[in-house]
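Review form for a predicted model. The reviewer records the input and the model, then writes brief findings.
Reviewer: anonymous (R2)
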Amino acid sequence: MLICFQDGNNFGALTGDEFIGRKHLTSLFLNSSGIVGVSNKTLKGLTELIILHLDHNKIEQLNGREFEELTALKELHLVEISLLLEFHVRPIKF
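Model under review:
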């Protein structure tokens, strides 16, 4: 089991370069790390990742493909992030 604690850093947007060569990580803690966004497939090389903590960051948007290739992922922690949800509502005709 390989655990990496990166809490309290100032990453900004995660693009993928941060995790090159760390494919055997099973737990990754990125709490309070100033993360504002996660690019699609940023974490794709972390095939053994089981637990991911992104608590207390400023992530405003998730596109849906950020965690796509994390096939072993069992826990995703997103406590107190600034996620904005966008809804498209069609007008109702009477």
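Findings: Residues 1-87 form a domain with the Leucine-rich repeat, LRR (right-handed beta-alpha superhelix) fold (CATH 3.80.10.10).
Further findings: The chain has one domain: 1-87.
Recommendation: see findings above.
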